[in-house]
Amino acid sequence: MTAFLRDSTLAHLRDVAEWPDLGPRYEITGRLGRGGMSTVFAARDRTLDREVAIKVLVGTGADDGLAQRLLDEAHILARLEHPGIVPVHDAGTLPDGRVFYAMKLVRGHGLHQAIVHQTSAGDRLALVARLCDAVSFAHAHGIVHRDLKPENVMVGPFGEVLVMDWGVARRVDDLGAGTAVSGTPGFMAPEQEAELAGDGRVDVFGLGALLRAILPAPMPRPLAAIAAKATAAEPRDRYPSVDALAADLT
User: Fold this and answer.
1) Quick check: 238 and 229 in contact, CB under 8 A?
2) What is the dihedral of CA 74, 76, 80, 83, to 10 degrees?
3) For a pLDDT cut of 70, what percent of the chain falls above it?
4) Which pLDDT belongs to residue 5?
5) Mean pLDDT (whole number) for 202-227
6) What are phi and psi of 97, to 5 degrees?
7) What average pLDDT does the chain have?
8) Active site residue: 90, 147, 165, 203, which one?
9) Which long-range contacts (CB under 8 A, 24 or more apart) does 127-131 make?
């Protein structure tokens, strides 16, 4: 006689198998979210007595390079010490072979939820300006985010604006022709979708698309012109830098 497990039982077994063994330092307190390649857990750092978030690879990723991608993300974040970028505290490998890194636990809301009660264009532009500052800082350190969209921006309880999810970020020197398509339709620059060589203007496009997504319609004509220039199909027709875009917004 064949026995079948209920879907709920299978889901529970998957959860148990996925729960990481982080040794004596970290105590897992809950799951925050799960993506295609990783799961983020809330945890307490017993050594420093603080709450952190732990990003853990779903599988070992040894054959498909995902482990290296997660470590690359941790290394990128470790280089970017900025109030608008989540700091990394630790990284390593679990006993089962999965890689992980520990970072600041961010409390707050996604950008779309945060702006529900901010109806004026001025208030929303202030958030975009702070976002531009963080992205410009990354560019100054040779890093391009490549997936700027409202879902990857968090607004904290004190108004802090944080750029999240650097999983597809690349060093600008690595953005040659043939770079794999990674990003979100509607927020990806045309050269990004076509696997052509790119630079920081990929993020200029993403910021322009994000601006359109969060500003009340119809946009005032000057702001519409800024968004149109930022999202021009040809990179040479866009703002040459995030700083230039931010200057016009200001």
Assistant:
1) yes
2) -50
3) 90
4) 54
5) 94
6) 95, -5
7) 89
8) 147
9) 127/153, 127/155, 127/161, 127/214, 128/207, 128/210, 128/211, 128/214, 128/249, 129/246, 129/249, 129/250, 130/84, 130/161, 131/84, 131/161, 131/163, 131/207, 131/210
- Is residue 102 within 8 A of residue 54, CB to CB? The reply is yes
Residue type at position 208: G
Structure tokens at 103: 């970072």
C-alpha distances in angstroms, 120 versus 20, 23, 115, 132, 194?
Answer: 44, 48, 9, 19, 36
Identify whether 218 is preceded by a cis peptide bond (ω within 30 of 0): yes
Q: By the 8 A CB rule, do 169 and 146 touch?
A: yes
Q: How far is the C-alpha of 166 from the C-alpha of 152, rounded, in Å?
A: 9
> Which amino acid, one-letter code, is at 84?
G
**What are 224's two structure tokens?**
């519409």
C-beta neighbour count of 215 within 10 angstroms: 19
Answer yes or no: are the C-beta atoms of 169 and 143 closer than 8 Å: yes
- Model pTM score: 0.88
Known catalytic residue at 147: yes
Beta bridge partners of 31: 41
Nearest-Å Rg of the Cα atoms of the chain is 20
Distances 15 to 11, 20, 169 between C-alpha atoms, Å = 6, 10, 28
Residue 21: which of 35, 36, 41, 38 has the closest Cα? Answer: 41
